[in-house]
Amino acid sequence: MEMTRLRKGERIDDLEVNGFRIIQNPSFFCFGMDAVLLANFARTGRKDRVLDLGTGTGIIPLLLTAKEKASYTEGLELQEEVAEMAGRSVELNHAEDRCRIRQGDIRQIEEVYARGTFDAVTCNPPYIKETSGLHNDTAAYNLARHEIAVNWEDVVKAAAYVLRPGGRFFLVHKPFRLPELMQTLQAYRLEPKRMQLVQPHEDQEPNMVLLEAVQGGGQQLTILPTLVVYNRDGSYTERLLEMYGKP
Fold it and tell me: Which residue, among 67, 84, 165, 163, has the nearest Cα to 123 in the 3D structure?
């Protein structure tokens, strides 16, 4: 019966966290390591209400729910078909009382939520400016990786709007955009408080950055030890395996 819920091209993947699974369709966009790292990096409490902006497959709300890192999580997704698929993943895990997916536009956040209604916000936003980089043939992939439907300032503005005073914003992005990331966060009174760089190998430069900003926080930034993904032999490092919940 469960398999009849799948649409053409969809599959069910095991998240290996408390039995949770996710529906994905490679024709759209499947989650990557950046989403897993962000869900682990996010310091959310069991009593928190958390919103994930541009949730895609719903991976971050599902992981936060599976790890019991929030009392309630919600994902906002622009693409109707993708939001519907993510909603079926919530149903697949019988998590409707703790997790919800909404279809909506980050740029019109005021039409979806009241101001200051969440304790924390997460986001794995498009990394690449619309005019930069090679575009994929798949429209859903382009929307996920390029600033076509939403840009960085749109994301920050939305996060600042829905966060309560003292609320926390967690994101993953590319290190080469750090100056712009910091400047825009501070412009919306989201003060960067914690940062961790991620590098593929020990001898390579970082290709991801994880950031935590606090609504109305003070000016003090903690830089965590850099996370290395792969050992020299190509296997995952011990720290990375811990994040994936594997021995």
Answer: 163
Q: Which pTM does this prediction carry?
A: 0.92
Give Cα separations from 233 to 204, 228, 246 (angstroms): 15, 13, 18
Q: How far apart are alpha carbons 160 and 124 in whole angstroms?
A: 16
Between 75 and 8, where is the model more confident? Answer: 75
How far is 238 from 86, CA to CA, in rounded Å?
A: 30
End-to-end CA distance of the chain: 33
Q: For residue 152, give the amino acid letter.
A: W
Dig out the tokens for 172 from the structure: 């993953």
* Rounded Cα–Cα distance for residues 7 and 23 (Å): 10
Instruction: For 63-86, give one letter per residue: b (16+ CB within 10 A) or e.
Output: bbbbbebbebbbbbbbbeebbebb
Amino acid type, 38: L
Q: Are 195 and 38 in contact (CB under 8 A)?
A: no
**pLDDT band, very low/low/confident/very high, at 247 (cuts 50, 70, 90):** low
Structure-block tokens of residue 92? 């697949």
Main-chain dihedrals φ then ψ at residue 159, nearest 5 degrees:
-60, -45
DSSP assignment letter at 200: S
